[in-house]
Automatic annotation (TrEMBL):
Biological source species: Pelagibacterium halotolerans (strain DSM 22347 / JCM 15775 / CGMCC 1.7692 / B2)
Name listed for the protein in its UniProt record: Luciferase-like protein
Cofactor(s) this protein cannot do without: FAD
MF GO annotations: FAD binding; oxidoreductase activity, acting on paired donors, with incorporation or reduction of molecular oxygen
Chain ranges of the FAD-binding PCMH-type domain: 345-517
Family the entry assigns: Belongs to the oxygen-dependent FAD-linked oxidoreductase family.
Sorted UniProt keywords: FAD, Flavoprotein, Oxidoreductase
Length: 758
């Protein structure tokens, strides 16, 4: 029987005695301290001498920090699968992904019946177990709609799925007889028998039966981990049998089980801390060393699950992934895939997501991606409006692991930010030093996407755009080179990435000059929008007349049901002068009839707090433009777009102030006269209607901010980069990315000839 190549696991098999409730907890803590990997607890709900296993597992998870927990094995007949799935996911989420599901069909039929469980034959219990496996996995699969199951033992009618666990919970079956072994091969993630019931001939036959069933189900035998409970063991000087001898004997016998019989996990029944210490600190490391050397010689590697291999896409050579990236690569079929496939506003189905952790790994990822015949997307936070941080059938380089936040000099405000950091995290860290950085209006946005395009945030009128404070960066170019850009090194590239960065490479980190800022005052004002055009026009004029400390964003929505149209202004006064803030905020109240108003003092981090959660994709269409003023004509057209129903919201963000103090040619963002950024959002199904109305507004616009636009048509480039900016960018594109490798997110075509590029 072969070695399946699984990661090795060593743990305990503990009795949950109610006579000494803390004993199992103490053993779990001792196991963790000894370096063991898991603690598993017997589950006999009908036994009055035992604690409830799932309550105990939750308690153990809370009292430990690293070790995995599992029932060994769960008595299914006394635990409905929906409730069991929810309990498992809950423990997994609370523990940070440390729960595994040991599951059994249910022995001791009389005891189960006495506890109120169903009276089932052995065959019926297996049938119920098979149904339960399907139900539990379906509960955890939140990518699909309501759950329905009409089985012989369980009926579910439209259950809302979830919660989704923190990691892919393995389902390990305690199985001995042929039908249970075949079910293990066809459906389970692990086989978990006990040594006392499984001797060598039976072990070989059982493994073969599992393998045959796996192949018949379209799986690989390596999809099923082989785990083993070992009840009686002792470390002693003389050899008295299996695991009854010196540590060297243990190493030899456990290594044989791994290399010749495919086992990879062992749960020991001895409850003595000394035994656990020897296993964790002496035996397990030596077994791992022996197995590692044997695998290196035989070429055995960690297996890729069938669920992943079966969903690989054309155009990607998965087997040639650089080793440093392969272990963390995410493919369709991987449990982690749902969490990385979509962006905020775009549903994606990439063929591969790479998650580099260093600039060198980003370089390797770029060179690998260039050799494939599929699109390449780059993601820092995935919140980008254009949605081009994902794709269908291509590769995504996800920078989420490059999320460092470092204050280099608190006095000068110099900070270094990883491209994958989120702005909520940045705000919190900088706030500890009395610093801040304007960063959009949502803390879940990644640093990289914002700091290469603009950064229109709640501090813009006082402090300018995010890119206005970028003084240096580290960038991986299309040829894999890693370069530093600043005023002395590649200054042209520094100019380009501040406004059009996604076209020139992958920025892995930025150096910015943050500024001192304590608390701010945030205000929310809600206006009656019955005369929406008047509200928009007056609000715009009042914002322009307000002090620079005040930046205001206004969102207008159409009437719904019995509620009329409304406009909500969220304003931030960059300072703690409450009297000045009140005067400025109250002045905005003259924009229209006020329905609600409130204000409060808060750290800037409170303004951009991030609730967390995964991106779910979407189908919105958003149009963007910049204007100097909200004129009566512009206000009327925006109001008309909203009233027509082709847009579900219109937003106006104030810029101007410090934004316009910067020269138009200082960087690749040239829009330094405009006071407002406009956006309108609608559904993809009504995009043509929105486009028609936006086309009537376009002659009144003066440029466009790409981060708020979903239309990536080349015509938009001239709006975002009016001449001579676009020509300069094309020339630099020819120098730094002549093959147009970075070509998904509003691609800038390289200059066609050297004269044009000069």
């Amino acid at each position: 029987m072969p070695d399946y190549g699984h990661e090795l696991m060593f743990g305990t098999f503990t009795t949950p005695s109610a006579k000494d409730p803390q004993h199992a907890v103490i053993i779990a803590q001792a196991a963790e301290a000894a370096g063991l990997d898991a603690v598993t607890i017997q589950d006999h709900p009908y036994n009055s001498d035992f604690l409830d296993t799932y309550t105990l597992l939750t308690w153990i998870a809370a009292k430990t920090s690293r070790i995995r927990v599992a029932a060994n094995v769960t008595n299914l007949p006394l635990r409905p699968p929906v409730v069991l799935a929810k309990a498992a996911a809950s423990i997994d989420l609370l523990s940070g992904g440390r729960f595994e599901m040991g599951l059994g069909a249910g022995g001791f039929a009389d005891a189960i019946k006495a506890a109120g469980g169903p009276e089932l034959s052995a065959g019926q219990r297996v049938d119920a177990l098979e149904e339960a496996i399907e139900i539990m996995r379906s509960v955890w699969d939140t990518s699909r709609a309501g759950l329905r199951h009409n089985g012989e033992h369980y009926q579910i009618n439209g259950l809302r799925r979830g919660p989704r666990p923190a990691h892919e919970i393995g389902i390990w079956l305690g199985a001995y007889k042929p039908r249970m072994l075949r079910l293990t091969g066809a459906k389970a993630d692990g086989w978990l028998p006990s040594w006392d019931y499984l001797k060598s001939p039976t072990m070989v036959e059982s493994n073969a039966m599992i393998d045959e069933a796996a192949i018949a189900a379209g799986r690989q035998p390596s999809d099923i981990k082989r785990l083993l409970n070992i009840g009686r063991s002792a470390i002693q000087s003389d050899d008295s049998g299996f695991l009854q001898g010196p540590a060297s004997q243990w190493v030899e016998q456990l290594s044989e089980l791994i290399l010749e019989h495919g086992f990879s996990g062992f749960f020991f029944g001895g409850d003595g801390p000394d035994l656990l210490r020897v296993i964790g600190q002496e035996i397990a490391p030596e077994v791992r060393s022996v197995v590692s050397k044997a695998r290196a010689g035989s070429g055995v590697v960690a297996p890729r699950p069938s669920a992943v291999l079966s969903k690989r896409m054309e155009g990607i050579d998965y087997d040639s992934l650089p080793p440093a990236l392969a272990d963390r690569a995410i493919e369709p079929g991987d449990f982690r895939y749902e969490g990385v496939r979509h962006s905020y506003i775009w549903s994606g189905r990439p063929g591969l997501v790479m998650t580099p952790e260093t600039p060198e790994e980003v370089s390797a990822a770029v060179l690998y991606a260039r050799a494939q015949s599929v699109p390449l997307s780059v993601r820092s936070g995935g919140h980008g409006i254009s949605g081009r941080s994902t794709n269908r059938g291509g590769i995504v380089i996800d920078l989420g692991a490059l999320n460092g936040i470092e204050v280099l000099d608190a006095q000068s405000g110099l900070v270094r930010l990883g491209a994958g950091a989120r702005w909520s995290e940045v705000a919190a860290k900088l706030g500890e030093h009395g610093l801040a950085m304007s960063s959009g209006d949502y803390g879940g946005v990644g640093v990289g996407g914002l700091a290469t395009a603009g950064g229109v945030g709640y501090l813009a009128r006082k402090f300018g755009l995010t890119i206005d404070h970028v003084v240096a960066a580290e960038i991986v170019l299309a040829d894999g080179r890693i370069v530093r850009v600043d005023k002395d090194n590649e200054p042209d590239l520094l100019w380009a990435i501040r406004g059009a960065g996604g076209n020139f490479g992958i920025v892995t980190s930025f150096e910015l000059e943050a500024y001192p800022l304590g608390n701010v005052i945030q205000a929310i004002q809600v206006f009656d929008g019955a005369d929406m055009a008047s509200v928009l026009e007056r609000w715009g004029a009042l914002v322009e007349a307000s002090p620079r400390e005040l930046t205001s964003f206004l969102m207008a929505v159409p009437g719904r049901a019995e509620q009329g149209p409304m406009a909500q202004a969220i304003s931030v006064y960059a300072g703690e002068d409450t009297d000045a803030a009140a005067e400025a905020i109250n002045a905005l109240g003259d924009a229209g009839p006020i329905l609600d108003q409130r204000a409060y003092l808060t750290p800037y981090a409170g303004v951009v707090a991030h609730p967390g959660g995964e991106h779910r994709g979407g189908s919105a269409v958003i149009r963007s433009g910049l204007v100097d003023h909200i004129t009566p004509d512009i206000a009327a057209r925006l109001s008309g777009i909203l009233a027509s129903g082709v847009a579900n919201l219109v937003q106006i963000r104030s810029v101007g102030g410090a934004v316009n103090d910067v020269s138009a040619d200082a960087m690749a963002y040239p829009h330094r006269t405009q006071n407002f950024s406009l956006t309108a959002a609608g559904s993809r199904g009504r995009a043509d209607l929105l486009d028609a109305q936006w086309a009537e507004l376009r002659p009144l616009l003066k440029g466009m901010y790409l981060n708020f636009e979903t239309d990536t048509h080349p015509d938009r480039l001239a709006e975002a980069f009016p001449e001579p900016t676009l020509s300069r960018l094309r020339a630099l594109k020819r120098r730094y990315d002549p093959d147009n490798v970075f070509n998904l997110n509003f691609p800038i075509p390289p200059a066609e000839n050297l004269r044009e590029a000069s």
